[in-house]
Amino acid sequence: xxxxxxxxxxxxxxxxxxxxxxxxxxxxxxxxxxxxxxxxxxxxxxxxxxxxxxxxxxxxxxxxxxxxxxxxxxxxxxxxxxxxxxxxxxxxxxxxxxxxxxxxxxxxxxxxxxxxxxxxxxxxxxxxxxxxxxxxxxxxxxxxxxxxxxxxxxxxxxxxxxxxxxxxxxxxxxxxxxxxxxxxxxxxxxxxxxxxxxxxxxxxxxxxxxxxxxxxxxxxxxxxxxxxxxxxxxxxxxxxxxxxxxxxxxxxxxxxxxxxxxxxxxxxxxxxxxxxxxxxxxxxxxxxxxxxxxxxxxxxxxxxxxxxxxxxxxxxxxxxxxxxxxxxxxxxxxxxxxxxxxxxxxxxxxxxxxxxxxxxxxxxxxxxxxxxxxxxxxxxxxxxxxxxxxxxxxxxxxxxxxxxxxxxxxxxxxxxxxxxxxxxxxxxxxxxxxxxxxxxxxxxxxxxxxxxxxxxxxxxxxxxxxxxxxxxxxxxxxxxxxxxxxx
Length: 487
Hints:
Blueprint: H1 14-25, H2 30-37, H3 55-61, H4 67-74, H5 77-81, H6 86-98, E1 119-122, H7 124-134, E2 159-164, H8 176-179, H9 192-206, H10 217-223, H11 240-250, H12 262-269, H13 276-285, H14 290-294, H15 303-316, H16 321-328, H17 332-339, H18 363-382, H19 394-400, H20 407-411, H21 413-422, H22 426-443, H23 450-457, H24 461-467, H25 477-484
Antiparallel strand pairs: 1-2
Helix pairs in contact: 9-13, 16-17, 18-21, 22-23, 22-24
């Protein structure tokens, strides 16, 4: 039976609270405490999250604070779970609340690819402050965030303890008070960008979690790139190479920063990477406030919709298309086709049903008028070197131009022939994609390797081999030779 259990401190890990209980209770050995605390006496204390506790332990833990609050304010759930998809986020939160033990399969916990062992860290100045205020120090959550090396509060470098964060470590409960030395020397950081990053991360980490948000970080960050130099005037294309160049320059003095590759940025934007540190870096670079990031919302209208509406508005005021193109810094052809509602747009007027005696549509004329738009759509799908290419198909063109399914194949023969002329085999498309990836890597002044090409394209080794014969069709001789020698 648990007669005494310590109150929880602000931002304290649950593990830290259990360790303080163990130290203060005078157990002869850890195994005796484990029998009282855990349903299985052979359980290894989970430093970052929770274990399956005995009813007595649960009663003590939740005496003055709910289990929901324990999970959100006293585990590392906000770091690994905040940006998960809504359903997965709920499942992970419930797994921690119910102590079912499958939370690690649901949370976005990055694999430790280095040989370095993670240990609990601490700030000497925080420890001094804790001892002065509470009479003892404890393990703070904010010091355990992956990617930070200085204290967000005092800006001094964090110190590593000997308490290992690993499933292979010997089971133990080590309190911070018995591990952290008294009045330890500290070193302050003068790295301004690092100080800004850790403060931003701390504020995001400690903010309440919007459990009902269904907005993914990738699409939110992409929406925040609207009307910047990283997206075209209509928002359909993005210049990720320029973004990567400016991003790496902005964070060039951030020590031990692993988030530097163009392909990593691509994967965050496509929601294939859900890493708290990386998302915070991109958000801070885009001047997104903490409040905006923790309450992510997408705009009611996309950049494309707003751009099209502006053309309609200016045209209704009497401006000609050349004038509008100059004002909006867009091409005359694009402005004209949008203004005439012939381009793919969310504001396309609904077609009225044919009335009795009405003339049938002149498909030949429609075919002629649509052909330039089809050619432009094909050009956009193929990419311009900066934009990732997409495979040309009738479906892809119809989708881009907001045409109904099979309209081209059934009614627009010239458009259909143009698409067929530009269609390519899967191997040819892979070759185009490989060349695009290689140019992205080279433009970022990085070394060209098969692994980096693979990371950008998600291509298998066998697929890369299959597309090699087509590489010369899309690459110059020098680049072609580099790609042929990657394997």
